[in-house]
Amino acid sequence: MFQPPHRHKEKGVVVCKISNQYPERNMREIVHLQAGQCGNQIGAKFWEVISDEHGIDPTGTYHGDSDLQLDRINVTTMRLQPGTMDSVRSGPFGQIFRPDNFVFGQSGAGNNWAKGHYTEGAELVDSVLDVVRKEAESCDCLQGFQLTHSLGGGTGSGMGTLLISKIREEYPDRIMNTFSVVPSPKVSDTVVEPYNATLSVHQLVENTDETFCIDNEALYDICFRTLKLTTPSYGDLNHLVSATMSGVTTASGSLAAQC
């Protein structure tokens, strides 16, 4: 089932909920989070793909003849700067996101893991957790959480791993799954990305049940060799990631979203 989602302040996270579409079965929801610029861009593309697969138009309206297709998505987005959030809101499927599930600040982490984990991100994490609790409490049978983020930046790596550890403390018996974009030496413009990734990996090992590592270099290779794209854009790469995420989440049954 899918009910059109409805949008918090801006340092950087979006929260959504994915639900099994069959009401006669035990409803199992996944709370979806997007952290940082990379995580929010991938997440926005993911919801475009999911909506298209399930007959949802950009306004959140379902087009079809099955009531079973109508359920709920809940998305929480977070970022330390408002820019990416604004682009998500103004994107083709921006209307499906609830305004109160956007959490952001006014200063970025500056590609600094420590700022995202201990200072700027730590100031925002309680606001994000409030949104997460709200979505978790609205679930009939919470299955777990999934996060899209980058390990190379400051918000996605630092604040993303902080959020994971906090959620693990509050929901130790729920599944924690991440889609983590790993820095690649050939597709990188920031010298500190390897350090941010190294600091993040320990947190992922300690606090996640599944981590899908995404390599931009490998995505470019797929675009060149398989899809025959001469100049692949980040949108093309994000679409590849979204297709993978869609395949992973199909195990939950046909999806619903309340963003």
UniProtKB/TrEMBL annotation:
One of its GO terms (molecular function) is metal ion binding. The keyword GTP-binding applies. Gene3D superfamilies: Tubulin/FtsZ, GTPase domain. It is found in: Cytoplasm, Cytoskeleton. GO terms for cellular component: microtubule. Residues 69-256 form the Tubulin/FtsZ GTPase domain. Its cofactor is Mg(2+). Its main location: cytoplasm. GO terms for biological process: microtubule-based process. Keywords: Cytoplasm, Cytoskeleton, GTP-binding, Magnesium, Metal-binding, Microtubule, Nucleotide-binding. InterPro entries: Epsilon_tubulin, Tubulin, Tubulin/FtsZ_GTPase_sf, Tubulin_CS, Tubulin_FtsZ_GTPase. Belongs to the tubulin family. Tubulin is the major constituent of microtubules, a cylinder consisting of laterally associated linear protofilaments composed of alpha- and beta-tubulin heterodimers. Microtubules grow by the addition of GTP-tubulin dimers to the microtubule end, where a stabilizing cap forms. Below the cap, tubulin dimers are in GDP-bound state, owing to GTPase activity of alpha-tubulin. This is Tubulin/FtsZ GTPase domain-containing protein. It comes from Dissostichus mawsoni (Antarctic cod). The lineage of its organism: Eukaryota, Metazoa, Chordata, Craniata, Vertebrata.
